[in-house]
Amino acid sequence: MSPAALSIRPRSVTGCTLADLAAHIGAELAADSAVPVTLTGVALDNRAVHRGDLFAALPGAHCHGASFAAAATAAGAVAVLTDPAGAGQARATGHPVLVVPNVRAILARAAAFIYGDPSQKLQAFGVTGTNGKTTTTYLLTGLAQAAGRATGLIGTVEIQIGEQVCPARLTTPEAPDFQAILATMVEAGVDTLAAEVSSHALAMGRVGAVTFDVAGFTNLSQDHLDFHHSLADYLDAKLVLFTPSRARRGVVMVDDDGGKAVAARAQIPVVTVTTKPGTAADWQVTNCEDAGFGSCFELVGPDRYTATVHLPGSFNVANAALALVMAHEGGIRLPTEIDLDTVVPGRMEVISDSPRVIVDFAHNAEALELALATLRPTTAGRLIVVFGATGDRDRTKRGPMGAAAAAADLVVVTDDDPHGEDAAAIRADVVRAARDALPADVVVEIAPRAAAIEWAIHKAAPDDTVLLAGRGHETIQEVGGVELRLDDRAEARRAMASREDRR
Fold first, then answer.
1. What does each C-alpha distance from 11 to 184, 186, 193, 311 come to in angstroms?
2. pLDDT tens digits for 466-492?
3. pTM for the predicted model, two decimal places
């Protein structure tokens, strides 16, 4: 989809004058540009410009955004925001230009000012961590809705504005889009926001003008080290959410060392949660029992709750406990007995029962290991996993993911999103690690992914479990720079239908 197709904007914006924005962000406004101009939106992409927009021109990997300034103004942008390197090209458009030393550093503040600072009109919950962000925000949204709140959600799967649902392109949208979405939520009567806050978003200032009422932390494991370079840098990016400018209070799951580090280093008041017996925390999960394809547990702290979550695995108990404590800290009215029956797309989503076929977003070694461990006790036959690793991303994930698959009885290595990298080379890295941990004859390499899914489902006996891991809700696969339609859930249903036809 094009940026324009996914653009979410409020219907009516008062906006601000160019001069007022310049004063607010400390920008240089050229004397010959000091003409009355009203700004009603912000765009980073010239293809997503609306009439009345400020076009933000940033330096890019291959060229400066200012090279698109003429196209942006032709599309309706009335002014350009850029840095000294882009100022010449921007001024050549003949439109007013604002110049700042670093556009990204002030972009969120500029967008918030133009859209009337919408986050101040919402109670905002932000969730960060490696795994579990999506599930936690969906559970939070369900709790808020049950309490009579009008909700909005921003995350990896989709954007929800009340009953309106739109596809998501990034876990956390770029700053102008984030502020436009918040303004649209306010316009639609939303009063409570749950948002996934990625490490990229924190490092790049995408939520720079938002102070969340409650920030939550799930866990920390190896991911995105192509961007952050080290686990310490990755943790530091997460910690930005737990500073006074980003959140008022925090709730931290302290089941792992990452959580303990966040709790110790947070610069805001935090309460802690744990599912681990013997771990000190303000809230403790106790009396956890299996409840079909889910769990029932007690959550004991300043108050006491009994909860049932209809998602399997100890990690989903942790996600549910985090959501409950965040809701409690945010003043959301909660009953003492809670049924968390929210459906989370592509998260332990059951496609069929015989064989049992499950789609999950487990896309790193820890998540894959946890998913397999969760499914093992309820699998009467073999546990089969179909997965791959992404290209143009952290290559050090591939070996650990292959090793994690050793918990399965049959491993099918296929493609995830190769992006611009050679798909066969990615598979080879994963296969090598899997065969180091398992007999060679139980590790199979099959591409493309649709063929791998079909093969695994046709190979499965009625009492087997087939886990399709890594892509979850995603519907687009990028191969060699080309976007292909691919939905694991649709492919699984197609394979089940053809399996029945063969019988």
1. 8, 11, 19, 38
2. 999 999 999 999 998 899 999 999 999
3. 0.87
